[in-house]
Amino acid sequence: MTQRLMIIDTDCGIDDAQAIMLALAAPNVKIVGITCCFGNTDVDNVCQNVLRVLSVCQRTQIPVFRGAAASLVGAIKPFKDHFGTDGLGDVLEDRDSDIWKKQVQEEHAVNALIRLVNEHQGQVSLVALGPLTNLALAIRLDPGISQKLKDLYIMGGNMEGKGNVRPCTEFNFFMDPESAYIVLEEYLCPTHLATWEFTCRHKLSWEFFDELTNQDTAASRFMKTITSKCWAFSREPAASIKDVLFGSGFVSYDAYAVAACVDSSVITESMECAVRVETQGELGRGLLALDPTGRLDKSHRVFVMTTCDLSKFRAMLMASIKQP
């Protein structure tokens, strides 16, 4: 089996943690680095969260890099506490920041991203699970970086104009619309998008979630702990915008992008089209506009995921939880 080299760029919340576990469990994947960005929580918490996941899975040899602490433009936005103020449900006790900081690499995440891609030209799959600030900064420092990537997978944006932080805007793109715009205009490698609505339309049952978090493994116990008091995992009717729009169910948002990267057959249908991120307006700032009819006159087209093989996806999630 050919080994896929992967870099994960993350704002590690609960769904990022599960996505990272999925990549760690894939026998054909070697994670060469994890770069951290603000998003679900501040960037220092993100670094700690990633290190916690690697520790649970006994994979602490993977280097972790601290990256952007805020968006390219404007004041720092208050962090949304969808997954708790620390990103992992506010339930973990071992959160001495000084201990965790010693394990983070001194090299900045953007520099590390550029270096790792240049060291493995044409081989690296970059999976972006949070705001795209690190990626935008990387292409400003190395304009040729996208041609050196194998491909790019992004969880973010929307395909139906539905949003979770604004009526029309998804969280990751809303947190840094300018970076999302830059990445989708200037990264010209094969690009695959798992939008918010796509993930919600492929929700899983709470019965499967219970099975997932009741395995006798360290990873399963970890997931059960960090979801135990998090309102995002409430099963009450209409507990969230997701439930109102798509019905109740368990959605591991970021894991869909990682699963698609690990095994392309998980995505059974995609729409290939040009896209553009809206950076203006009160309601539409951060909106991902799809252009299936070619009105934008853009040569670069991306693959917007539309249909997922849920049986394969469930199997990958279950494998991710059965570690170390």
CATH class: Alpha Beta
Order of helices and strands: EHEHEHHEHHEHHEHHHHHEEEH
CATH fold title: Inosine-uridine Nucleoside N-ribohydrolase, Chain A
| Radius of gyration using CA atoms only | 18 Å
Q: Architecture, CATH level 2?
A: Alpha-Beta Complex
- State the helical fraction: 25-40%
- Could you report the average pLDDT, rounded to the nearest whole number? 94
- Total helices: the number is 14
- The backbone outline, from C-alpha atoms, is globular
Count of folded domains: 1
CATH superfamily: Ribonucleoside hydrolase-like
- Poorly predicted segments: none
Biggest sheet strand order reads: 3-2-1-4-5-6-9-7-8
What can be said about the biggest beta sheet?
Answer: 9 strands, mixed
Intertermini distance? 21 Å
The structure class reads alpha/beta
Beta fraction? 15-25%
Task: Characterise the protein shown here.
The chain has 324 residues and is α/β, with parallel strands linked by helices. The protein has one domain: Ribonucleoside hydrolase-like (Inosine-uridine Nucleoside N-ribohydrolase, Chain A, Alpha-Beta Complex). It has 14 helices and 9 strands. It has a 9-stranded mixed beta sheet, with helices on both faces. Strand 1, helix 1 and strand 2 form a beta-alpha-beta unit. Helix 1 (14-25) packs across helix 14 (310-321) and helix 4 crosses helix 5 (133-141). The radius of gyration is 18 Å and the shape is globular. The chain starts with a strand and ends with a helix. The model has no long low-confidence stretch (mean pLDDT 94).
